[in-house]
Amino acid sequence: MVRVIALANQKGGVGKTTTALNIAAGLLKNGQKVLLIDLDPQSNATSGAGVDKKEINFDAYDVLISNRSVKSAILKRTDNFDILPSSPELAGAEIELTKKKNRQMILKRKIAQEKENYDFVIIDNPPALGLLSLNSLMAADSVLIPVQAEYFALEGLAQLKKTIDLVKEHGNLGLTIEGILMTMTTHTKISRQVVAEVEKHFPEETYSITIPRNVRLTEAPSFGQSIFDFAGFSSGARAYNKLVKEIISKDGTEESEPS
Ligand SMILES: Nc1ncnc2c1ncn2[C@@H]1O[C@H](COP(=O)(O)OP(=O)(O)OP(=O)(O)O)[C@@H](O)[C@H]1O
Ligand SMILES: [Mg+2]
To answer: How far is the CA of 4 from the centre of ligand 1 (A)?
Structure first.
């Protein structure tokens, strides 16, 4: 069964795109078939995956706003890896979507058939809880929430949880929290305190795996590479590798009935 995972946090720069790119790459490395959807007008996931603007004919904007199918806009990277790229025009979609009927359900409807060709669909989102993120949350099975281990980490998490509850009430009852992922952790006291605080507030949801601050993770996307190809022995690669294993191991186990 395909799993659709949305990366969300309305706070900017917390590691959504870095996590989307590296879990997509890690899943691929583990033999999974992956569709990466870039729903952020900043297009960082698109460029970080090594897509050249010149390669893009159609993008997520066309899919959300016109009759274009996901299939016809997808870029094939390898046999097992497809991308629905983003473009700066997507910023306009936030406004244009407001005129559409069932505007928060468009992505869900559009990927309904296509997603069955994959093991995982990973959706990167902008740092806002607007219509783009809402479309992702409606289309997703779960939300993975990266949280930067800094002051004010908890700020916004309550609102995000409220939004997730609203999405559950209004059309996506099965939406779960895949996990809260502490990112850019360091050995400083403040970093440890913030991780502890988030764990205290969200003991069930917070991963025991944390992603350390690692400069290799910032360098890799400028080469269009995942951390596994760029610096396979780095602390960042090791942490994302563990996270990917954890995500895969969850597969199907939650629904299984005790026999
Ligand atoms: N573990 C890490 N160690 C060091 N740098 C990191 C790490 N994770 C992310 N970064 C860097 O921090 C910055 C923000 O990360 P990223 O782009 O993944 O966040 P984002 O949540 O997608 O941001 P936005 O909200 O703008 O889309 C980037 O420069 C990225 O390379
Ligand atoms: Mg981003």
So the answer is: 22
In this structure, the residues whose C-beta lies within 6 A of any atom of ligand 1 are 12-18, 40, 42, 44, 127, 183-184, 211, 213-214, 217-218, 236
The CA distances from residue 27 to 33, 118, 228, 240, in Å, are 8, 11, 11, 10
How far, rounded to the nearest angstrom, does the alpha carbon of residue 171 sit from its chain's CA centroid?
20
User: So what's the architecture of 3-249 in CATH?
Assistant: 3-Layer(aba) Sandwich (3.40)
Contact 43, 55 (CB under 8 A): no
Q: How far is the CA of 13 from the centre of ligand 1 (A)?
A: 5
Whether 252 shows a pLDDT value over 60: the answer reads no
Ligand with the closest atom to the CA of 211: 1
- Determine how many CB atoms are found less than 10 A away from the CB of residue 29: 15
How far is the centre of ligand 2, averaged over its atoms, from the C-alpha of 139 (Å)?
19
Burial of 22 from C-beta contacts in 10 A (0-12 / 13-18 / 19+): buried
What is the domain partition of the chain in residue ranges? 3-249
pLDDT tens per residue across span 26-74: 999 999 999 999 999 999 999 999 999 999 999 999 999 999 999 999 9
Which of 9, 17, 216 has most ligand 1 atoms within 8 Å of its beta carbon, as the pocket-test mutant?
Answer: 17
pLDDT tens profile 89-140: 999 999 999 999 999 999 999 999 899 999 999 999 999 999 999 999 999 9
Of the candidates 122, 168, 166, which has an alpha carbon nearest to the alpha carbon of residue 146? 122
H or E segment to which residue 84 belongs: strand 81-84
